[in-house]
Specification:
With 358 residues, this protein is α/β, with parallel strands linked by helices. Among the domains are: 63 residues, Dna Ligase, domain 1, CATH 3.30.1490.300; 132 residues, ATPase, nucleotide binding domain (Nucleotidyltransferase, domain 5). It is 35% helix and 30% strand. The strands form 4 sheets. A 6-stranded mixed sheet has the order 10-6-1-2-3-16. Strands 13-12-11-14-15 form a 5-stranded mixed sheet, with helices on both faces. α5 crosses α6 and α5 runs antiparallel to α7. This is Type IV pilus assembly protein PilM. It comes from Rugamonas rivuli.
């Protein structure tokens, strides 16, 4: 087994969160400014060459290592311990019920025995971890345990990236869990701390949109859809004869021809809003839930002009672009005006950085 507290994110301070996505590497460093209060000390991002990371798999180790080195230097941090994330599709999670009162060693043996039923690989090929959630519902003599397992080479790839960058990975979390940790801070600031509210999070990434629905801090639904901001970038490439990197840069800056809004951006926004409404309908038809009280948009596309308004109009749900740093103090090196446009893309990195205080 790997470190018992690793996959589920109980790390030791000090450390920074580093999110390695398809398109970039993002770093966040937080400090505690009071009980349950945090300060954003620094954050930074570096783009990744296309093909460096594909479907969560590290395809070009050297390019990713170079980006991690650059983002660490750019941020100005001195922390060498890092929390990294694994894509949800790379991790098998399963809640299991076990008898209470076992020692940690006995739990390990029992978890390994149970794991063989759920993992389609030999146990010596996986990194396996577990976390005791608490007493099982309706069965006081049992406990509920979260089992997490990933192919060993996928974990080792990320550990190797940290080591080659002069850093040490001390926490390996699941990206969706990290995002939820950051989201929990935000929902706690809703009226009545969000109690009883069904909250949906749409993380629109470069290639994939990850949908999570939470109720009282518990994830009740998760799904991924193959839709992301790269579709708009490819439209820009085809329409204006740019290479992909230039198109991506000019998409973010808005430095594009006058017809961009009507001919490219508006159709993309319509497609994005349609993806959101379809996902919500699928949630309603495949679960017992019939409402969503609050919808949050996150990811690099969240701040595209007009997207929030269109989603709110089509879904008839209270909608907002999320900032994982809402309510935090800002360190001297953080520019608040820049943070407003950057923050929605840092949900996972912020959640990873929060593991310092777990």
């Amino acid at each position: 087994m790997i470190d018992i507290k690793a996959l589920l994110g109980q790390g030791n301070p000090p450390l920074v969160g580093i999110d390695i996505s398809t398109s970039s590497v993002r770093l966040v460093e937080l400090a505690q400014s009071g009980k349950g209060e945090y300060r954003l000390e620094r954050y930074a991002a570096e783009p990744l060459p296309r093909g460096s990371v594909v479907d969560g798999n590290i395809e070009n180790m050297d390019q990713v290592v170079e980006a991690v080195r650059r983002v660490w230097k750019k941020s100005g941090t001195r922390a060498k311990l890092v929390a990294l994330g694994m894509p949800p599709a790379s991790v098998i999670t399963k809640k299991i019920i076990l008898p209470a009162g076992m020692s940690e060693d006995q739990l390990e043996v029992q978890v390994e025995s149970e794991a063989s039923q759920y993992i389609p690989f030999a146990l010596d090929e996986v990194s396996l971890d577990f976390d005791v959630i608490g007493p099982a519902a309706n069965s006081p003599e049992d406990i509920e345990v979260m089992l997490a397992a990933s192919r060993r080479e996928k974990v080792e790839d990320r550990v190797a990236i940290a080591e080659a960058s002069g850093l040490k990975a001390t926490v390996m979390d699941i990206e969706s869990y990290a995002a939820r940790a950051a989201l929990d801070r935000v929902t706690a600031q809703l009226p009545e701390a969000g109690a009883g509210q069904v909250v949906a999070l749409f993380q629109v990434g470069a290639q994939v949109t990850h949908i999570s629905v939470m109720l009282d801090g518990v994830t009740v639904y998760e799904r991924e859809q193959p839709f992301g901001g790269n579709a708009l970038t490819q439209d820009i490439v085809r329409a204006y004869g740019m290479n992909f990197d230039e198109a991506e840069t000019r998409k973010k800056s808005g430095d594009l021809p006058d017809n961009y809004g009507a001919e490219l951006l508006t159709p993309f926004l319509e497609s994005a809003a349609l993806e959101v409404t379809r996902a919500i309908q699928f949630f309603y038809t495949s679960t017992p839930y019939t409402r969503i009280d609050q919808l949050f948009l996150a990811g690099g596309c969240a701040l595209l002009p007009g997207l929030l308004e269109l989603v709110a109009s089509r879904t008839k749900i209270s909608s907002a672009v999320i900032s994982p740093f809402k309510g935090m103090q800002l360190g001297s090196s953080v520019r608040e005006s820049q943070l407003r446009s950057d923050a929605p893309a840092y949900l996972v990195a912020c959640g990873l950085a929060l593991r310092r205080f777990g």
